[in-house]
Amino acid sequence: MYEIGVVYRNIPRAEAAVADQLGAFGSATVHEAMGRVGLLKPYLRPIFAGAQVSGTAITVLLQPGDNWMLHVAAEQIRPGDVVIAAVTAESTDGYFGELLATSFKAQGARALVIDGGCRDVKALGQMGFPVWSRAVSAKGTVKATLGSVNIPVVCAGALVHPGDVIVADDDGVVCVPRAMAARTLEAAAKREANEADKRAKLAAGVLGLDMYKMREPLAAAGLRYID
Amino acid sequence: MYEIGVVYRNIPRAEAAVADQLGAFGSATVHEAMGRVGLLKPYLRPIFAGAQVSGTAITVLLQPGDNWMLHVAAEQIRPGDVVIAAVTAESTDGYFGELLATSFKAQGARALVIDGGCRDVKALGQMGFPVWSRAVSAKGTVKATLGSVNIPVVCAGALVHPGDVIVADDDGVVCVPRAMAARTLEAAAKREANEADKRAKLAAGVLGLDMYKMREPLAAAGLRYID
Amino acid sequence: MYEIGVVYRNIPRAEAAVADQLGAFGSATVHEAMGRVGLLKPYLRPIFAGAQVSGTAITVLLQPGDNWMLHVAAEQIRPGDVVIAAVTAESTDGYFGELLATSFKAQGARALVIDGGCRDVKALGQMGFPVWSRAVSAKGTVKATLGSVNIPVVCAGALVHPGDVIVADDDGVVCVPRAMAARTLEAAAKREANEADKRAKLAAGVLGLDMYKMREPLAAAGLRYID
Amino acid sequence: MYEIGVVYRNIPRAEAAVADQLGAFGSATVHEAMGRVGLLKPYLRPIFAGAQVSGTAITVLLQPGDNWMLHVAAEQIRPGDVVIAAVTAESTDGYFGELLATSFKAQGARALVIDGGCRDVKALGQMGFPVWSRAVSAKGTVKATLGSVNIPVVCAGALVHPGDVIVADDDGVVCVPRAMAARTLEAAAKREANEADKRAKLAAGVLGLDMYKMREPLAAAGLRYID
Amino acid sequence: MYEIGVVYRNIPRAEAAVADQLGAFGSATVHEAMGRVGLLKPYLRPIFAGAQVSGTAITVLLQPGDNWMLHVAAEQIRPGDVVIAAVTAESTDGYFGELLATSFKAQGARALVIDGGCRDVKALGQMGFPVWSRAVSAKGTVKATLGSVNIPVVCAGALVHPGDVIVADDDGVVCVPRAMAARTLEAAAKREANEADKRAKLAAGVLGLDMYKMREPLAAAGLRYID
Amino acid sequence: MYEIGVVYRNIPRAEAAVADQLGAFGSATVHEAMGRVGLLKPYLRPIFAGAQVSGTAITVLLQPGDNWMLHVAAEQIRPGDVVIAAVTAESTDGYFGELLATSFKAQGARALVIDGGCRDVKALGQMGFPVWSRAVSAKGTVKATLGSVNIPVVCAGALVHPGDVIVADDDGVVCVPRAMAARTLEAAAKREANEADKRAKLAAGVLGLDMYKMREPLAAAGLRYID
Questions:
Q1: Helix, strand, coil % (nearest 5) of chain B?
Q2: How far is the alpha carbon of E34 from chain A, nearest alpha carbon, in Å?
Q3: Which residues contact B125 (CB under 8 A, 6 or more apart)?
Q4: CA dist., res. B133 & res. B85, Å (int)
Q5: What is the ipTM, given to two decimal places?
Q6: Model-level pTM?
Q7: A63–F65: do the CB atoms touch at under 8 Å?
Q8: Run of H or E residues at D176
Q9: Minimal Cβ distance to F175: which of C1, C157, C159
């Protein structure tokens, strides 16, 4: 399935402005806007709370216990990218720490999403480099076996192509295929447009049952109230 | 086991004063006071640290990937309630977010406990609405299939009846059956009465071995010290 | 495998100065310095972020659902110790809370590492007593069955002897055997010596590919760049 | 939630003939017939393949690592019963083995369903006593702490009352509340009535799309075929 | 990521002869022959031991708890196909049972691989229709929401395109992309060519250390023997 | 904790006759006879049912995804040995298959216990070589990094020294330290001596309550019968 030992250098990226604006909506809204697909599995968790980022994907395929290709990937980073790292087997090792984060940040990366472990999390928090990972682990890795950079990868159960848009926050990580980025942005904007109005109504005590006109379909589905 | 498609409107609730006072003792003390039963499984975790709540249970049975009944439940909330949501299959989807929290809060709910996922966790933290959930996930849900409201449910392995008292904090979630609430409160108060004294002694260097008179039973059980 | 019902009182401890200094390097560096062994499994997590401790190990073997031996262990604590608690079966019960922490702290313990659950985590955070555990749970335990104190134990997959050095922080927990402590400290110091220099270079945009001279071995391994 | 230290001796049981006939339909059909509720979580697996049993529930609440109450339960078994054992904490210990199975069988039990571990599985297979458990483990248990017999229990996520009907086979375990047993039997029989006919049609190459008249609703839902 | 509500009817399939021959080598050899990629996660297990199949992939994307699209997929099956079913969320429900298996078999399918649950496993064993699934569960599903047929899916962590070759046996499930099928077959044949010879040598007591000439590289890597 | 890159050649082994006789008692009885310690975690499962073996331990420490040291271990096998393989990180890869089994068997090994994955399980069943593993996986491994042979290892949570006795069957795997082997054998024999008598009584309908004289302690513990 995977091509091993290759680095694609010139990848088409989703439009930067679109990628940037998608981030502001957050993963939950973007996921809805895409038709409820594209979510990476929720076992990926941020190493610190509150980060909200978006960017274009650089993809990396790692071998278990080996972070060599993260160094190779660093060279491919362009400002505004988010690095997406998959591993060819389930692993919680600490593939990424303070030094790599320093380098990624210097190259312009906004975040790392890794289907493996991360370490130096206190330092990463202090330098403000966000990571979504499946584990935190002090266990380091070797640099011995080739993987690939910028091939399509399956990361936490989702297919990510290089250049796709990644949106990540406390709720999780969503991948928006490059070709769908513009229309997803539009759909997300539409979803949010009347949110403030809804929020105000609900805060004032209006019930969703009435606001969304659910009483009739609920009755049609057979809901019975018992006193 | 479950009655589907019904909403019980007039449920007997545990006495509000008792429910309120139980919260001050926290889940660990209340769990002990009940004879070490009633704890929901510890995979339920708070979405932010530090919340400590208690209240009377509104129960909701959800279908997987469907949060319709949370809207139905909103109407049944009375000030001081805690909503307990079970799902008929294991699921980590994000059934609950900012809009529903706004509505629940407006109706007087103090918290949500859900054996499923939650989203918009940053916003929920900002509005101070606590949730105990098994996952955080951006994945939204549909509104298509009936469950029930205010029937007895099994949530995270524990049986909860509507009107029971729920106590939740950083240590977890405990359900106190309505009929046991008063006597559990008494037992909890008794447990805590001499805690300050014990704490002072231990802080002064007195050993639990001596304070609890454990040396004799330990010797009787055969404990040997080897120099 | 385990001797049950014994307490070893006079255990040889790693040198205090060495144990203290190892803590400053953190679990990730110490793990590397040992040759990438000695890590406890990453499911052990700190109950609050930011703690970084080291000390000499007091070991405890607990029976599932029973914390009796933690009281026995308290008497064996010397200032600078870290208590390492293993359980003879997988369990998430809350073996340790505020009262025991008060006692452990009074005896000079710096932290607890437990392959089980912990409770009263808000209070523990307020008193600043760090715990690494596999779970947080309000479920208390009984005091009925003997285990042992200061025998070698397997905790979260790692063998720990009493007197070994424990290093724990946000990245995890590492055990340094007493006999390897001095030379591990040396190796850790060596690793860190030129870290600042590396960090500066990477921050300035130098690539790890060049700094670590990886281009040649990558090419030798067959890495191909595709434009 | 649970009453500890009690044994209810005279429990009302579902009608034996109904319990017996439900078994013939198997867990999948019975689960459907109940409206798709009542299933114990699928982590419960049979210790050997091919067993298909039904019977009336004797319930047992065990303390973790303690099988004392299984001996107490043995006395309450009547021919045609299935023993349902819950544990107050998650545990994989081997609570049940050859000797208890010999006793249970002699008292007329048809099977054990346990939310814990089982051992002597080879011997149990040879004597043909079926067990559904969450684990197989050689780890034995003590006889030290009281639980209860014939109180309502939550077993593998499902609420079981003594006297309910249990249906178990290779597909899993279903609990049919006593009050629903007769009408569930009827519904199950209805479901199966035309199965043979459907099976024959499908085997002859008729598509479910046509047999179930799905083409129209699929089109209405928007399904598009692309050549 | 996924296109919802579409059925691709005319998919290019890998050559039947190649697909057939790959099956004889088994998943382990084929996985090696591909360069150790393409394996579906090992949590997929066969519902009965001993099946060894290969075929061309029909892919199905299911919604959680909904097996409607399996009926849609049945019409797309050609003799020699293997159906690969992914679900948009983690789920253990029983999506597939005896009736669907009867239909799939009648249409010429050789097996089902599903990242969800399966039921009627005894009947499936009796009719000899092999299934690899993540769970066995009596829990049935509804027919309410569209997914897709013959789009690329991620199943148990691996990307599968319609028409790829699937090889499955007791060791697991491997996907061979259509474009790599012929050369993988060649590589697999080469791997097996001298296996018989190796097996005979090892059975005669020759050590792998000598047969594979490992002593020198082991010494070079620093291996020390201690008497 | 671990010494890497060494092979201990002359290990003291438990007495062969003792190791052989322990096997006949099975893992459950031996585990009890040791005082309920020494069990490897129950996630280790046999690849086929019915095997019951015992022998002296050869230990192997593997690096994740690398089975080089299994070849090194083969040379250290003496007839009657059981190979115990630990991995320095959690891994389900297939480290062991038909060729290695052929070699191990030729050298006199009776079984493999591995805290990782195994493959070629059909072939292993046909040749009758038993394996207890944490997974079955077609994923092969490389031969690149040193581990060790015949050092003490932690395998599935239990400490195993080379030369210890291993007892494994359908119920799991137990390690009996060499120094405890003789007295464990005695204790196991004593346990079994009156089992036949007990079994006969229980089969005749005598209750464990009476046979074990439990009624009095149950009453003393407060058990109440309710009619």
A1: 35, 25, 40
A2: 8
A3: A49, B47, B48
A4: 10
A5: 0.94
A6: 0.93
A7: yes
A8: strand D172-176
A9: C1
